[in-house]
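Researcher: For the record, we're logging two predictions in this thread. I'll number them. Prediction 1 follows.
Model: Prediction 1, sequence and structure:
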Amino acid sequence: MEHTTATNKDILLAEDDRDDVMIFELAIDKLNIAHQLRHAENGEVLFDLLEERVPDILFLDIMMPCRDGAACVLEIRKNRNYDGLPVIMYTSLTGNPTVETCFRNGANLFLEKTNTVADLVEKLRKVFSIDWKNYMHYPPLNQFVLS
């Protein structure tokens, strides 16, 4: 398992919906940051890709085949190989039980999906404004959902 050292952001998106992947790709491109975007279409592929290389940041959908995102983040937090990996929940599921489960399981932020690229760009700007390399951001529950 290798960690990246290049100046490019190594971004891993775990998402099974092709439309959501496309919107995410468009938004990331509009941020004008050097990046490599890898994609896992389910929870099993996610762990295969994590074993290949630990990304700089992981965006994780909740409702995926094989393993759901809430279970994946819990498993990630139990594995010392992934210490320091920022996990951003990226989902259309909202509501207190879902948010609280992801918070308790160790996610760093909760990002609600949007249907517009412009809205997602603004949310992603906030995510990438955090210095994840030097500061592992765990906000309190009332600041966990990024709006």
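Researcher: Logged. Prediction 2.
Model: Prediction 2, sequence and structure:
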Amino acid sequence: MRVCAVICEYNPFHLGHAYHLRAAREASGADYVLCLMSGALTQRGAFARHDKWLRARAALENGADVVLELPARFACSPAPDFAGGGVALLAALGVVTHLSFGCEPSALPLLSAAASLFKSESPDFSAALQRSLADGLPYPRARALAAEQLAEIPADLLAQPNAALALEYLQALPETIVPVPVARRGSGYHDASLSALSSATAVRAALARGGLTAALAAVPSPEALRAAEESGFVHEEEALTQALLYRLRTASLSELAALYGMDEGLENRFIAAAQTCSTRETLLDCVKTRRYTRARLSRLCAYALLNLTRDFAQTHRAPDYARVLGFRKSAAPLLKTIKQRSSIPLITKAANFDRSNPLFALDVLAQDLWSLGVSNPSLRASGRDFTTSPAILSR
């Protein structure tokens, strides 16, 4: 049995994602394609616009056989944790043979060389990295420059969004899982303009400014997305601004300093900015410096809402369950094999799982916060993790 996995967000699922799933299946010769998808929170620290079951169903309608949830602890984390947590979960299932990700196939040898360099942590590399960090560069850029200096690997290649995650996947993959690069088609990751193959960034931007018709042309399953948008079952990025500002204005320095990734006195900048800023975006603008990426600061906002501490992150370094968000009935043999081989529990009904599990409790909190921020007040009830069934497709 060949099983090709894809670690993803699908925020939202668009035509480029559908192409990737088809290409991954073809390149790997997979019998099944398994998606490990972020739930309520994304890697850049923002809540997903649409709920995780809608996004899972879109993936199933367009090439996926099973969709599992990447726990929030890893879904909303720096690239090493995002990739490392995802790969650890996939490896624990005992069935995954391939992992596909966005990357030019011709770049794979250079990225593999860079991954080996980063993993080795040689004294020369560490010294070059520290020199770049001392110049005030963000960690991803500093690391790319160190690789360029020592191994002549182009820093611009390593700085590309897809390359950054590909590097982490290559470092985390066990020998039993084969990497399957698939070249991106259409718009770039951060391209905000709509086109035939638009990026998720472009689709979200169009939806945020009311361009529903244009956005629907870029997605392969438009009716469910239209229904969510028209009913107000969406989470806008500023939806929890008041909750965030309340948290930052009332927390002590020591409470904020204990958050995961809150290093080098950043808590002082957050508390100061929270006194005068009135939106999430202006807060990030005030805290931002050359040294810190916007994504890192955005994640810190999420950690403040979740109270995700450094101690929690260090204690929970790998997923200890796999939760099913949806599947095709034709994938029943795959689910049966996972149950037989997996070293971690497979959750098909959340109500039957241990609610005291810390990682699971964090997922539930993240989903409840997502629900609290939806546009339609009548749809803000908590507990959807226990009242929503997995998406099941009959074909």
